[in-house]
TrEMBL record:
Organism lineage string: Bacteria, Pseudomonadati, Pseudomonadota, Gammaproteobacteria, Oceanospirillales
Keywords tagged on the record: Cell membrane, Membrane, Transmembrane, Transmembrane helix, Transport
Membrane topology, from the record: Multi-pass membrane protein
InterPro entries the record matches: ABC-2_transporter_component (IPR051449), ABC2_TM (IPR013525), ABC2_TM_bact-type (IPR047817), ABC_2_transport (IPR000412)
One of the record's GO molecular function terms: ABC-type transporter activity
Family statement: Belongs to the ABC-2 integral membrane protein family.
Protein name: Transport permease protein
Biological source species: Isoalcanivorax pacificus W11-5
Matching Pfam families: ABC2_membrane_3
Principal location: membrane
Transmembrane intervals: 21-42, 167-189, 215-236, 248-267, 279-298, 337-355
Length: 360
């Protein structure tokens, strides 16, 4: 082996990597991103779960119980209710994850050693269920000698605590994010590499028509993928669809459009198909880790939660789990719908503007 030639090749590769900014970014940014996300953002000990309180007793003892629960840091109050039914409605809409019910005869129940407090929990997320169980183990002084647990947990939507019930709806979003962004980004760049894009631009078709028409077939592919996952989830794992099926597809279309426009924007920046795949990775990694698919959203620091709100997968997961598992409808979760529409409009506008500049 000639060491001089080997050294020359070594230097050439280093210089090539230095010139390729995307590869250089992957070498440096990906490890840093993983370190920060796993070390700072990912936290399996849930804190500050949004909670609703229905204190029907309204006395000093019940207020003390509520304050003790809040002092644990597991829940944070975001809503007040008068009845358990109102709390259940808030749970179904996804406004809260935990509801605390203190009945009017709270003190008498406590003195008689009976169940005195109910914790209602959105069981569609098994991690939230576990946090609620820990909250229910909080001791109440007057019930210390009682054999009955003073705080009971009532789990809704997934009382068997099957992880598939939580995972399968989320998989629809993960697969659509991975495939739609990648397909679109690569497809546009491939046309440019083959020299076909300039020929298409030379036709009377406008740039907006060209870009929209280019991505529409992938929207159909996304709906086919959604149907396959829904059917397999129902057949293999008995994952229910408690809400409207057509609303499930509307939510899927919203995510597909958001991802397709994001792919278009990437395609205006990438110089080759390989670069497009590399840039897609920068979107896919934070989407998986921060959206609430793998790790609990409520356990992340506030700054990371603000960042995660910019990801379309975050809003889709709330939509799909709300519709499929809790039977909610789109009007009750209009904020998530609006977020996806705004993201799509913004990405499409940026993509068209950048596309025009590149061809000029």
């Amino acid at each position: 082996m000639n060491w001089q030639r080997l050294y020359a090749i070594f230097l050439k590769e280093l210089r090539q990597m230095r010139r390729d900014r995307i590869t250089l970014a992957m070498i440096v940014v990906i490890p840093v991103m993983q370190l920060v996300l796993f070390g700072y953002a990912i936290n399996l000990n849930l804190r500050h779960l949004p909670a609703g309180i229905a204190d029907q007793a309204g006395n000093a003892a019940s207020r003390t119980v509520v304050m003790d629960m809040l002092a644990t840091g597991v829940i944070r109050p975001v809503a007040r209710a008068n009845t358990p039914e109102q709390l259940m409605d808030l749970l179904r809409r996804g406004d809260i994850s935990v509801g605390v019910v203190i009945p009017p005869d709270f003190e008498r129940r406590l003195s008689e050693g009976r169940e005195a407090v109910q914790v209602l929990v959105d069981g569609s997320d098994t991690v939230v269920q576990s946090a609620a169980v820990q909250l229910a183990r909080m001791p109440l002084t007057q019930a210390a000698a009682s054999r009955t647990e003073p705080i009971s947990v009532v789990s809704f939507y997934n009382p068997e605590r099957r992880s598939a019930v939580n995972i399968v709806p989320g998989l629809i979003g993960v697969i659509l994010t991975m495939t739609m962004v990648l397909f679109t980004a690569v497809a546009i760049v491939r046309e440019r590499e083959r020299g076909n894009m300039e020929l298409l631009i030379a036709t009377p078709v406008s740039r907006a028509e060209l870009m929209v028409g280019k991505v529409l077939p992938y929207a159909g592919i996304g709906l086919v993928q959604t149907s396959v996952i829904l059917l397999l989830g129902l057949w293999l794992f008995q994952v229910p669809i408690r809400g409207s099926v057509w609303e499930v597809y509307v939510a899927a279309v919203l995510l597909i459009l958001a991802n397709l426009t994001l792919g278009l924007l990437i395609s205006t920046r990438a110089q080759s198909q390989f670069q497009a795949m590399q840039m897609t990775f920068f979107v896919f990694l934070p989407s998986i880790l921060l959206s609430g698919f793998m790790f609990p959203f409520a356990g992340m620091p506030q700054v990371v939660q603000w960042l995660a709100e910019a990801l379309p997968l975050t809003h889709f997961l709330r939509l799909i789990r709300g519709i499929m598992l809790r039977g909610a409808d789109l009007t009750e979760m209009w904020r998530e719908v609006l977020a996806l529409l705004v993201f799509t409009a913004l990405m499409m506008t940026l993509a068209i503007l950048r596309f025009r500049k590149r061809l000029d």
